[in-house]
Amino acid sequence: MTADPSVPGADPRPAGAVLDAHLVVDRGTFRLDLPLTIGPGEVVALLGPNGAGKTTALRALAGLIPLTDGHLSIEGRHLDDPARRLWTPTEQRPIGVVFQDYLLFPHLTALDNIAFGPRRQGLDRHRARQRAADWLARVGLAEHARRKPRHLSGGQAQRVALARALAVEPALLLLDEPLAALDARTRLDTRAQLQHHLAGHCGATLLVTHDPIDAVVLADRLVIIENGQVVQEGDVATVTARPRTDYVARLVGLNLYRGHADGHRVLLTDGFHLVTGDQHAGDVFVAFAPSAVALHPGRPDGSPRNTWPATITGIQRHGDNLRVQLGGPVTVAADITPAAAAQLNLAPGRTLWAAVKAAETRVYPAAAAPADVAAEP
Ligand SMILES: Nc1ncnc2c1ncn2[C@@H]1O[C@H](COP(=O)(O)OP(=O)(O)OP(=O)(O)O)[C@@H](O)[C@H]1O
């Protein structure tokens, strides 16, 4: 599905933004072209499929790869501007970075890992260690001050890495998949702690993640890139309610189709018709949740306005339910309870009838409306 060009073009430039950047980076045949503005205290999640350019954006912001074009300013200070041959080395940028695998100095204690940044900023040894001790206490690890990284658990190392990044009081905090290396339980606790620390951070934060839960819990605004370009951005509620690409729809767990509406009927691009609760005219998206899809062994009678024969192509666990992938005139995902699954005798290749009530569908114009574009931070 192609991006609506009006979406990236509508990037806001809030007055007093901490980060004001247009990141253009050429890497062989790949080009990142990402306008990005983040306000004080704002947390923006950068999401996208593999190879979309998230790491490239993060590395460009950190000064680990140069911009090909565009510009980068933090708190009004111009750091990168290739047209003017301006580039600022990593250590001179007012940033803190938490990498996916933390990259703590293995030979330094937890305390000295955190004190390292403040020391480089010019604090004397005593004050740097005091600040580090304060941060260790804030992340709940005061008693682990003298431990080396190899004696810390994954969750503890993550907290030390966060304290190390925040101890330099960065204007821009960069988080690269900060919870990805943790097991599910530790991840839950650490996410809650991270949320607490981000709420107290008055600089800007960019969170790179694959995980929609991290993004929804931690971010104020989502920026979604595909093939190096912004395909959708906005506040969490808007993006999750109105996905505009297949990737975003999968991310937020909705079935999404594009078609042409004429009243209550939408003709999809592959020739199938859906009946919708709302009336529309023109090019639209139609979205509905997998839980809105009912499955029947035979053609259902009665109220659902949309029914079609569908063939099971896959079955996965999804929370307490099962998510059934179905092919047929339209590709659809359906969530059903284990009890319903037992009655239906589910198996790949089996044909059932899918039904979706018109009232369960959500229809919105395919052309981006102001509500679909970037929210003011
Ligand atoms: N060192 C490099 N030299 C040339 N091209 C590169 C280099 N590193 C990455 N690329 C290309 O840049 C594009 C973007 O990669 P990037 O790692 O930024 O994506 P990503 O969104 O972080 O992906 P993932 O989620 O898989 O980490 C890809 O097409 C990749 O092949």
TrEMBL record:
Q: By its UniProt entry, which InterPro entries does this protein fall under? A: AAA+_ATPase, ABC_SmlMolc_Importer, ABC_transporter-like_ATP-bd, ABC_transporter-like_CS, Mo/tungstate-bd_C_term_dom, Mop_domain, P-loop_NTPase, Transp-assoc_OB_typ1
State the PROSITE patterns in the record: ABC_TRANSPORTER_1 (PS00211), ABC_TRANSPORTER_2 (PS50893), MOP (PS51866)
What are the protein's UniProt keywords? Answer: ATP-binding, Molybdenum, Nucleotide-binding, Transport
Mop domain location, by residue?
A: 301-365
| Domain ABC transporter intervals | 16-252
GO molecular-function terms, A-Z: ATP binding
Cited PANTHER family: SPERMIDINE/PUTRESCINE IMPORT ATP-BINDING PROTEIN POTA, SPERMIDINE_PUTRESCINE IMPORT ATP-BINDING PROTEIN POTA
Q: What is this protein called?
A: ABC transporter ATP-binding protein
Q: Which organism is it from?
A: Micromonospora andamanensis
